[in-house]
Amino acid sequence: MKSQELLSLISELADELEVPGVAVGLWHKGTATYACYGITSIDNPLPINEHTLFQAGSIGKNFTATLLMLLATQGRVELDAPVRDYLPDLELKDKAARDQVTLRQLLNHTAGWEGDFFPDTGDGDEALMRFVERMKELEQWMPPGAAFSYNNAAFCLAGRVIEVVTGVSYEVAVSKLLLEPLGLRESFFFRDQVMTRRFVVGHKPAVDGILQVARPWALPRNGAPAGGIVTSITDLLSWARFHLGDLSDGYELPQLTGSRLAAMRKPTVHMPGCGFGDAFGIGWFLSKVGGSYLVSHGGSTNGQEANLSLLPEHNWALALLTNSSPGGLALCEAARTRVLSACTGLAETEARPASVNTLELAAYEGEYRALGMHCQINAGDKGKLLFTLYNDPELLQLMTGEEPVIRAEPAVLEAWPVEGYPDRYVFASNPIKGITGYFDRSLAGQVQAVNLFGRRLPKQVSRR
């Protein structure tokens, strides 16, 4: 796929989905191709180029996982060792989980506690230490290793392990042990590093639907291991090439080659029907495509959406960075589908809506909650499910620092049951059309939780 074709594709999608700026990098059969479109900000516009910096969000989790893999190859950590071997003062609400949880369970989202925890613990080097001290506030929903549920807090804890083992801050450890050896000179964590370069701001629609700049721009410092990296499309594609084993630029980490990187792409937990993938390795989502795994990770911050995908068997990688949400999410999904097909002829399997009567849907009805997420599910007409999503003012206040935060009107999303797969559903309209999820049942066959955007939300028991 040539640069002009890429540019035509992303400009078409950006205009359609109201995304002010996009950068894309494609690696296929030994050739890198880039295309950039749009502006950094609707308030202070500058053209986007290959060196413009974007927030990559949770793609940063892959850097955290890779660094722990490096430390494991050096014999400085063991992935199946309890976290308390490295953090003996760790306290969690559940004492059994505190003693049992391993590094691997932090890295594959099976730690089992509430994961969306975003208190601001300051800008100093103690930020992660203070964050971990507050983790005893989190409810333990499942024993460690029991099931997948996306967990930002677990990756922050993993970042703290990196600090203790290396003796330096998380950001310094990533820079010295990963970024510098791999020649990634356009990847940063701190605002002072970013603000002297060309960078984008996020955008979101206001209540009236008009796109506006999203504030605040930065995440709390303690969020760095879960998604604080800021990078360019050239660096992000170089990171993908490293994971594919490409050494043509002369950069490598001799202790992390071949089988060790491939081990990160092997399933460690399965979650068929999850909207992000069918399984999770170490720092990577895995989705079945054409008999092999499409390896990927997305990233969302305040008004920015990103995606990084690899298909190692085809020597293929695609990096996408956008500065709008939720439009950027739909753009990343559509662009990946079309570029993957154009380059390899492969396509991800689409979930087909099933015809289900309202009586069968009654089992799913109810209220589902986890920290920061509240969903009411009801049976709609014509066999659909209606998901009513409520925002959490307290969580928004933690994230934005603004007080008071007004409770927004709930969003109502339509979903269909999936043909041939009991207890799965697929959303029916943009910007999340095609995103799937599933319901979890107890041993007695009762619906006990919903997996929504990768998070496990327990069903609330009626107290009537």
Automatic annotation (TrEMBL):
Q: Where is the Beta-lactamase-related domain?
A: 9-334
What InterPro entries does its record include? Answer: AmpC-like, Beta-lactam-related, Beta-lactam/transpept-like
Q: Which Gene3D superfamilies match?
A: DD-peptidase/beta-lactamase superfamily
Where on the tree of life does the source sit, at the highest rank?
Bacteria
UniProt-listed PANTHER family: BETA-LACTAMASE-RELATED DOMAIN-CONTAINING PROTEIN, D-ALANYL-D-ALANINE-CARBOXYPEPTIDASE/ENDOPEPTIDASE AMPH
Name the record gives this protein: CubicO group peptidase, beta-lactamase class C family
Q: Which organism is it from?
A: Alkalimonas amylolytica
